[in-house]
């Protein structure tokens, strides 16, 4: 097959075969993506794209790959239905078949209030638009509340994997308190056709012991029903702020939160990207080792995130980092930066909500697709 073509700004001579055309076109598209990603990284591009971890070697961690379920979960205590659920998530969306995931989370209507979350783009008061954004954005799954997913479940449960967030910190009590409470039963999520359940534990809080027990029981039930379990491993304690420095996202403390999360058998861990280190040394509580800071981590963000991955059983349990709040013009660059750090550290993907839904849907889709382009780019490797 031969043809004359002008496509995507490139002239193709008459005697180009289709395979040659497609190969060159695909390569051109990749180069364009590479260039866009590098531009968005700005002056951090060289440091992030060329860094090599000399702390915990990439050879010692499990890498996300198309055979993740076979390599990690096939020999575990997860039943066949749970393996199917995991595979369904990994097979869906633009990242389907890569071992990486891109998830749209919209539970902020409870966690941050509906007004604060949806006023920038009121169409997302309507649950259907949340699911549409996840589908149009090529996500592996959509995570939201019982109410949001339940009211559209019959229409969409077979079109995209649904992840029901089973507990929340309701934000209406006065004074505000930080406590995750159950909003429903796992069986309710299963009945609506959900593939997975998600939950949050505020590790370090006064209520963390009860939350650990509740979530552990819920995850056991979810696995019995064949559902994937995802844990938001967050820290909450005013004592984690020392001399004006906030250690809620320190690598050592979040790493231990991850380790607790995989202990109660979360299949995927959601964690904030580390912003510093040395939380244990600052708070002078718990136990750590000088080797954590001298050998297993450096100040480089990829090395700090690698320590989070290590605490997820050396990558056997996938680590997805959160996208954070929307700041407007810098959202795309920040999302790509987080994705590059996560991927190069050995993480499994990104879960980004406010940056995607607090803007027009077309821009939200573009942001989600650009995040996914990082994980589709074979030139961005594990450091």
Compile the SSE list and pairings.
Blueprint: E1 2-7, E2 10-17, H1 18-41, H2 45-49, H3 68-73, H4 80-91, E3 101-106, H5 108-118, H6 127-136, E4 141-144, H7 146-150, H8 153-156, E5 162-165, E6 167-168, E7 181-182, H9 186-191, E8 196-203, H10 208-224, E9 228-235, E10 241-242, E11 245-246, H11 251-263, E12 268-271, H12 279-283, H13 290-294, H14 301-310, E13 318-322, H15 331-345, E14 349-351, H16 354-357, H17 361-376
Parallel strand pairs: 3-4, 3-14, 4-5, 5-8, 8-9, 9-12, 12-13, 13-14
Antiparallel strand pairs: 1-2, 6-7, 10-11
Commentary on this structure:
The structure is a single chain. With 383 residues, this protein is α/β, with parallel strands linked by helices. The protein is built from 17 helices and 14 strands. The strands form four sheets. An eight-stranded parallel barrel has the order 3-4-5-8-9-12-13-14, surrounded by six helices. The radius of gyration is 21 Å and the shape is globular.
Q: On the 0-100 scale, what is the average pLDDT?
A: 92
- The counted number of beta strands is 14
- CATH third-tier fold name of the largest domain: TIM Barrel
Largest sheet data: 8 strands, parallel, barrel
What's the architecture of the largest domain in CATH terms?
A: Alpha-Beta Barrel
| Count of alpha/pi helices | 17
- The CATH superfamily of the largest domain is identified as Aldolase class I
**Helix content class:** 40-55%
Any idea how many domains? 2
CATH class of the largest domain: Alpha Beta
Strand order in space, largest sheet: 3-4-5-8-9-12-13-14
Radius of gyration: 21 Å
- The CA-CA distance between the termini, in Å, is 41 Å
């Amino acid at each position: 097959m031969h043809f004359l073509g002008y496509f995507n700004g490139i002239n193709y001579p008459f005697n180009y075969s289709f395979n040659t055309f497609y190969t060159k076109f695909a390569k051109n598209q990749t180069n364009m993506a590479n260039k866009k990603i590098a531009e968005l990284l700005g002056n951090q591009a060289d440091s992030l794209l060329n860094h090599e971890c000399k702390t915990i070697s990439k050879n010692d961690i499990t890498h996300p790959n198309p055979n993740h379920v076979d390599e990690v979960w096939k020999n575990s205590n997860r039943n066949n239905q749970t393996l199917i659920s995991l595979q369904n998530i990994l097979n869906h969306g633009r990242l389907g078949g890569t071992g990486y995931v891109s998830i749209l989370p919209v539970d902020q209507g409870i966690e941050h209030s509906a007004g604060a979350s949806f006023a920038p783009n009121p169409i997302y008061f309507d649950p259907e638009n949340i699911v549409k954004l996840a589908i149009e954005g090529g996500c592996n799954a959509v995570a939201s509340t019982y109410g949001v997913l339940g009211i559209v479940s019959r229409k969409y449960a077979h079109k995209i994997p649904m992840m029901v967030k089973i507990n929340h910190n309701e934000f209406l009590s006065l004074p505000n308190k930080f406590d995750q409470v159950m909003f429903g039963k796992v069986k309710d999520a299963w009945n609506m056709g959900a593939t997975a359940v998600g939950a949050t534990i505020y590790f370090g809080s006064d209520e963390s012991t009860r939350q650990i027990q509740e979530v552990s029981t819920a995850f056991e039930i979810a696995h019995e029903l064949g559902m994937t379990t995802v844990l938001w491993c967050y820290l909450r304690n005013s004592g984690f702020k020392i001399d004006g420095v906030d250690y809620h996202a320190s690598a050592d403390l979040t790493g231990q939160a991850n380790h607790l999360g995989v202990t109660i058998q979360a299949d995927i861990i959601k964690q904030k990207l580390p912003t510093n280190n040395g939380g244990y040394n600052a708070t002078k509580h718990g136990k750590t080792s000088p080797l954590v800071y001298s050998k297993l981590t450096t100040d480089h963000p990829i090395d700090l995130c690698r320590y989070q991955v290590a605490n997820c059983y050396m990558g056997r349990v996938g680590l997805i980092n959160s996208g954070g709040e929307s700041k407007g013009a810098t959202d795309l660059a920040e999302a790509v930066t987080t994705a590059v750090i996560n991927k190069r550290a050995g993480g499994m993907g990104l879960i980004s909500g406010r940056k995607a839904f607090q803007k027009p849907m077309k821009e939200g889709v573009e942001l989600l697709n650009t995040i996914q382009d990082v994980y589709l780019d074979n030139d961005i490797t594990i450091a």
